[in-house]
Amino acid sequence: MSTSAPTPSSPAADTASAGTWRSRLVCAAQAWLNFEVWPQSLALLAARLYLFEVFFRSGLTKIHDWDATLFLFSEEYHVPVLPPELAAWMGTGGELGFSTLLLLGLISRPAAVGLFFVNAVAAISYPDLAPAALKDHYIWGILAVVLACFGAGRFSVDAFAWRRWLNKA
After folding, report:
1. Is 157 inside any structural domain?
2. pTM to 2 decimal places
3. Which residues, at least 6 apart from 141, have a Cβ–Cβ distance to it below 8 Å?
């Protein structure tokens, strides 16, 4: 019984070259799919940075003049069900906390849902909101929903932790 290497015209060589061709096709498809993930991750990062900038600044403004914040929540903003001081604390904490979590990409889906509700309550609670400002709230709400649905993308603590956890398993 002789064991010889397959010659270029043998059936074994044809099968080997077909396998190589298929594996190259699969690798090319995987590379293309991974290429599509990068632009999506960049767009999600841009959304996270934008929402952080908007909501974190708003939270800092509230902290810098807490008396004015309490006045606004008592007289201007009509948050349903909550007392004004509690609403001020929750709104400010939500703006600062959820936006920071989104910036880091840490528990980003729950943070995006939380920020969506902070945004919705802000839009509902201020009856004299100008149409242009209401449009901004719509945009912020849509971006928060996108982040809640798709997550933070590759450039996040969530993705890093997930990859690390998968490598240990």
Report:
1. yes
2. 0.77
3. 116, 119, 120, 123
